[in-house]
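U., I forgot to send this yesterday:
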Amino acid sequence: MISKLGDVPIDPEHPFDGCKLDRKKYAEILTQIVSQYDSCVLAINSEWGTGKTTFIKMWQQHLINNGFNALYFNVWENDFISDPLIGFIGEFKELSKQYNLDTELSKVTNAASKIVLSMLPALVEAIAKQYIGDNAVNIIKGCAQGVTDVLSKEFQDYENQKNSIKEFREALQNFISQCKSDKPLIFFVDELDRCNPAYAVKVLERIKHLFSIPNIVFVLSIDKKQLCNAVKGYYGSESLDAENYLKRFIDIEYNLPEPSYEDFCNYLYDRFEIKTRMKYLGYGKSLNDFAITLFQYNKLSLRQMEKIYSHANLAVSCDKKQKCDPMLFLFFVFLKVCHNEIYTSFEEKIYKEPQDIVDVLEPFLPEDSEESEILSKVLGKTICIFFSHTKPFSVENLKEKAESLSIHKNTAHTISVEIDFFYYSFHGNFTFDKLTEIIDLLINFN
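Result:
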């Protein structure tokens, strides 16, 4: 049994063979785009949880297979490093080994160290103000300046700082030129929007001021909305035009198209082996058909869909003997994962009338003519199982209340019919408490 998907295996020779979202075509388009530039910053924008990391790792291998040098750096995993420049330089080690460029990389490293060391006094001052107080700042500044004087006297004025940056760019340009490729080096920067705001801004500034040289293209994997929030947080202003601010650093923005819900759901359905336990819903559709409709209607991310199927797989594995209505089971797993406050409200049994349930659940269910059957079935089953054991409602009471629901008349009638059918089909063996016990993993593995 698997509890999560983990990293998608990437075949070095055929990197997109494991892609279930048909994204190879986008990699081919992007490859043509980066081939047109010898220096730029390209941002691949897509919401968190839509598989950007997997995509760019596959694309990285695709580029390597097509004669590019391509590096990958996850800044979020490495934001403990005081300066992102250190992490950037560290990624060049692989190319140094590949092309025997230890001497050239040493020159890049030495030039970079001068730039990093020159920032020491300002860094120490900021830390002192935050943790010690203004009274100690001057003393610490003096000590820090003394250390800097010992390390590098030449960084005391603006002109020498510019020379250090120039030295770094020249050393890096020389290093890249000897990497034996007529194509630009592609440097992937992943998870930028997940870094703390100060670090994210520093990464952008380092790229702009130090890496604007020929034959290197930076590819930023971002959730633009979240990165804009980080920029606003860094500057402490909600009114800041963060999108325009980012244009200072990003030359090209590419919006990765939304994935196919059907393709990804089919993959999860098979991967988590849900179909071996809960396949058909009894009205000509599979549980996965219901999932595709539900997930697409609610615009779930890939990460949310994975969590739902992962939890469903675990719950089903815990309770191999207990019979459970598949549609209600998956719908309430969806609520637990994506809208836990509503799931909890059902456990607390705060709803007193069928109309209360319709009001809270209707927004999550499609109501167009083609999918109205899903709406009526979920509402009918929920009303039936929720009230038949928690309130002294007879099935006739529930059917009568269903007919008068504030909802489309035809849907209200179908809900009433579903209540009648479901009430007599489960014969009291399947209760709402039993449903939540399964979902909450309160039953021992059988």
